[in-house]
Amino acid sequence: MTARAADRARYDRATAHLDAPVAIVDLEAFDANADDLVRRAGGKPIRVASKSVRCRALLERALAKDGFAGVMSFTLAESLWLARSGFEDVLLAYPSADRAGYAELTADPKLASAVTVMVDDVAQLDLVDAARAGDGGREVVRVCLELDTSLRLLGGRVRVGARRSPLHSPAEVAGLARAVARRPGFEVVGIMAYEGHVAGVGDALAGRPLRSRAVRLMQAAARRELAERRAAVVRAVRAVVPGLEFVNGGGTGSVQHTAAEDAVTEIAAGSGLYVPRLFDNYTSFSGRPAALFAQPVVRRPGVGVVTVLGGGYPASGAPGPDRLPVPYLPEGLRYDPQEGPGEVQTPLLGSPADDLLIGDKVWFRHAKAGELCERFDALHLVDGDAVTATVPTYRGEGHTFL
């Protein structure tokens, strides 16, 4: 029996009492992935990216481990909810236009001390000040400045990397730091620089050796350029804000490279806990799939074909086959190219279909971490061949933040 076949047997036994659709997290794999992230971080703390987990119980499980500290959130409403739930260090990774949230933040000392907001433009400061609720909104807002990490070539005519912050140079970031420092009610406490073109792009694409080599060359150049620029940015900002608390960088795919930079004080990672299918194409690390979902077989249309209920759960990003869930267990199933994964039903092709009966489970891996939790109210935690706990996702707690 292969390792994957053994996993399928375990998952089927563990969830035999549960009807599909159902989502699980394999705790042994989750913990092994967490340990690997800590090892690669080389002693620097890992801030857990909540959008890649979207389950309070599993955020708490990760943070209980040595080597993890703090949460990186994705909306202001989520940040406030986590802070009210007892999370004491929440970094909002994206600028917000949530005026009601800012009014709440600036009026509550507990929330203001726990939540740090992201800024890359003075207009965002104006929005916060406009949201201050009269005499009640006087709390000092903790601010993190985001650096654009994109690699610019040929005099800026070619850009590699996500379009995020407009702040690219040390002078630009330091200039905003000075503007914040002069402004009552705000305090610069950190810098964030997420190199998504390194951390979030696989460099070992199956059947595409030339493109894989090109990606590796690009990433090596990007790491060198960013390490120098990030260090210069930190020096420039520290000249304005000597008490800077943290410099955040990295991502699951670049943990060990970013951690090697002296200027970086902490690493962000979250997807590496679940290891979705997009992380199968990396040479820098290998993890164990920890989060899966199962759909039930509801039809057997013919030889070599079964149909499962639902399954059309595409991930965000540029549309393409790599954004689709992948049939994982039993091994050897594939989509019908004329239909793909469907909203209500999904036909699957391959010889393993002939061994599946009505009601059997087919296990899938989602393309991206966290987004799967927008489809399920609960995650069943599997330890060995048993479900040892069932915990709510954000959705199960009544929250769909974005």
Summarize the structure.
By secondary structure, the chain is of the alpha/beta class.
Tell me what the structure shows.
By secondary structure, this protein is an alpha/beta fold. The chain has helices at residues 3-14, 27-41, 56-63, 76-84, 99-107, 109-114, 122-131, 170-181, 196-199, 209-240, 255-259, 271-274, and strands at residues 22-26, 46-49, 68-73, 90-92, 115-119, 141-146, 151-153, 158-160, 186-193, 246-249, 266-269, 291-302, 305-309, 326-329, 334-335, 345-349, 361-365, 378-383, 386-392. The strands form three sheets. Strands 1, 12, 13, 14, 15, 16, 17, 18 and 19 form a nine-stranded mixed sheet that branches. An eight-stranded parallel β-barrel has the order 2-3-4-5-6-9-10-11, surrounded by five helices. The protein has a two-stranded antiparallel sheet with strand order 7-8. The longest helix is centred in the middle third of the chain and has 32 residues, at 209-240. The chain starts with a helix and ends in a 10-residue tail after the last strand. The mean pLDDT is 92.
